[in-house]
């Protein structure tokens, strides 16, 4: 080994130990202040793209290097002051988890060591940590002994098993011959219009075409109707198509609906389809055991599950997980053996498990958080998120200017209805949709709270999804007044003359 002092190369991108330590301490101090001040900060920014670009300055790429301390400080200023803060107690939009502090530190550590978790030879300990993380995720949700890998998020955590399903269920060598080798036989996918749009991307990317998707009708709670599913599979079989995968959602993106997973599992077994559960958001609630929706018991029957630690396990982006019963279904789908990989076969090489070759160490932040809080910590946080969402639903039910629309898992939907408007008439409903849409738009730049929307049977509603361990009852109690104040003001501006 060569002593540091005798090394002759000084690369401009390197930072010497003392300077690195000082920069790191300074940055951690700033991040700590930022996290402490978060509840008092505006949850979102109201700056336009042009204003943000002006802050960055219309400058070209610097020719000369610059001082890292000022660069880091400027980056922190820009981000602390002009972001939508997913870690704010009143961030409830989309499905975006509050980042656990240990996850942020884990990412720093992962980036510093920088194992390439594509193959065991480049990441011995990191690979084993990822494998343990996957097993723990399986245990957490009652999936039991399983394999899988971490990917960027829910879209990929669904796409990867989708490919595995195609490989497993296509009756010809689809990896070699592609779809053309089927000589016109059409592969069929079963989902509902509540399935997240990853399914469109997946059908498109795999060359099936989005028309391969059978949109199975839903019931009044937006859950897949299994009688229709069975009927559709039989009709497809009768015309020579190949039904290969049915997707059950455990916590839909819009309203948190949980499909009848046990019945879908039974139909998949009967017709030899791959049973995939999109639990990107909701599967984490299976940690509640008997207190979870009873359909979650059928997670154990799934051929594959998507579960996003960056949603309801509060892990910083990016972290999605693919869980499968047996690693071989992934290896059969993804493994190729180029001659630059010379490792023996008795080790886990994640390049064989999914589409990536080089991979970052996403697992570390998940592994750390799972241990920091344990099963009980997650039970407590997830149960509290559900309780708070339910409380909002109850407040909306009794509020004279709010209409409670749905509550499932930690998602509550509701809408603002001015007291003097009679619901039900077509013109009124059109206006209420416009009004609530305007409200959601305002909530995207409001300093006070961040909400998004859902559409339920043509009704445009406001939607709160709590995957936020910082939200407390005071935040929930404050929301109705915020909505009503904004709603009244918008109603004064927007109401058309014929509804006055
Ligand atoms: C049920 C479900 N599946 C998949 C996704 C896609 O996840 P991601 O945004 O991490 O790709 C989402 C996102 O909200 C989701 O709710």
Q: Can you describe this structure in just a few lines?
A:
The protein has about 500 residues and is of the alpha/beta class. Helix content is about 45%, strand content about 10%.
Describe this structure in words.
The protein has 500 residues and is of the alpha/beta class. It has helices at 17-37, 49-56, 68-81, 101-113, 124-140, 154-169, 174-177, 198-205, 226-238, 261-271, 309-312, 327-334, 363-398, 426-443, 473-494; strands at residues 147-151, 187-191, 213-215, 242-249, 274-278, 304-307, 320-324, 402-408, 411-416, 452-456, 459-465. The termini are far apart. Strand 4 (242-249), helix 10 and strand 5 form a beta-alpha-beta unit. The strands form two sheets. Strands 1-7-6-5-4-2-3 form a seven-stranded mixed sheet, with helices on both faces. Helix 1 (17-37) packs parallel to helix 3 (68-81), helix 6 (154-169) packs across helix 12 (327-334) and helix 13 (363-398) packs across helix 15 (473-494). The chain has 15 helices and eleven strands. 43% of the residues lie in helices and 12% in strands. Bound molecules: pyridoxal-5'-phosphate (PLP). Pyridoxal-5'-phosphate binds at residues 95, 153-155, 158, 196, 198, 249, 253, 278, 280-281, 308, 320. Pyridoxal-5'-phosphate binds next to helix 6.
- Unreliable spans: none
CATH fold descriptor of the largest domain: Aspartate Aminotransferase, domain 2
Number of domains: 2
Structural shape: globular
- Output the structural class: alpha/beta
């Amino acid at each position: 080994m060569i002593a540091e002092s005798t090394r002759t190369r000084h690369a401009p991108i390197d930072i010497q130990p003392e300077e690195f330590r000082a920069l790191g301490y300074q940055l951690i101090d700033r991040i700590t202040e930022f996290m402490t001040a978060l509840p008092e900060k505006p949850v979102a920014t109201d700056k336009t793209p042009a204003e943000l670009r002006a802050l960055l300055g219309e400058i070209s790429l610097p020719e000369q290097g610059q001082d890292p301390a000022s660069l880091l400080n400027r980056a922190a200023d820009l981000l602390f002051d002009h972001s939508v803060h997913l870690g704010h107690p009143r961030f409830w939009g989309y499905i975006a988890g509050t980042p656990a502090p240990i996850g942020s530190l884990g990412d720093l550590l992962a980036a510093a060591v920088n194992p390439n978790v594509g193959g065991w030879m480049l990441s011995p300990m990191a690979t084993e940590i990822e494998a343990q993380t996957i097993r723990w995720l399986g245990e957490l949700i009652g999936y039991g002994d399983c394999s899988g890998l971490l990917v960027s998020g829910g879209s990929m955590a669904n796409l990867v098993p989708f490919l595995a399903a195609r490989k497993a269920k296509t009756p010809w060598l689809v990896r070699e011959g592609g779809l053309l080798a089927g000589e016109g036989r059409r592969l069929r996918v079963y989902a509902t219009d509540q399935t997240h749009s990853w399914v469109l991307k997946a059908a498109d990317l795999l060359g099936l075409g989005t028309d391969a998707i059978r949109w199975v009708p839903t019931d009044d709670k937006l859950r897949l109707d299994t009688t229709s599913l069975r009927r559709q599979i039989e009709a497809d079989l009768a015309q020579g198509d190949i039904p290969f995968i049915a997707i059950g959602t455990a916590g839909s993106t819009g309203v948190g609906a949980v499909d009848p997973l046990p019945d879908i599992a039974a139909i998949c077994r009967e017709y030899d389809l791959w049973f995939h559960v999109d639990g990107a958001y909701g599967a984490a609630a299976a940690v509640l055991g008997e207190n979870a929706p009873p359909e979650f018991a059928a997670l154990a029957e799934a051929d594959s599950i998507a579960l996003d630690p960056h949603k309801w396990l509060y892990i910083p982006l990016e972290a999605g997980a693919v869980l499968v019963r047996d690693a071989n279904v992934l290896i059969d789908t993804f493994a190729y053996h180029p001659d630059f990989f010379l490792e023996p076969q008795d080790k886990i090489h994640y390049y064989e498990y999914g589409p990536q070759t080089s991979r970052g160490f996403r697992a570390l932040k998940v592994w750390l958080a799972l241990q920091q809080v344990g099963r009980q910590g997650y039970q407590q946080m997830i149960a509290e998120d559900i309780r708070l969402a339910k409380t909002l639903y109850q407040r909306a039910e009794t509020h004279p200017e709010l209409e409670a629309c749905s509550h499932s898992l930690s998602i509550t939907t509701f809408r603002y209805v001015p007291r003097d408007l009679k619901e039900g008439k077509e013109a009124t409903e059109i206006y209420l949709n416009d009004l609530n849409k305007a409200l959601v738009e305002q909530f995207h730049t409001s300093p006070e709270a961040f909400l998004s929307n859902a559409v339920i049977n043509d009704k445009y509603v406001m939607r709160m999804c709590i995957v936020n361990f910082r939200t407390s009852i005071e935040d929930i109690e404050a929301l109705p007044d915020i909505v009503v104040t904004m709603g009244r003001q918008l109603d004064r501006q927007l109401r058309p003359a014929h509804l006055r």
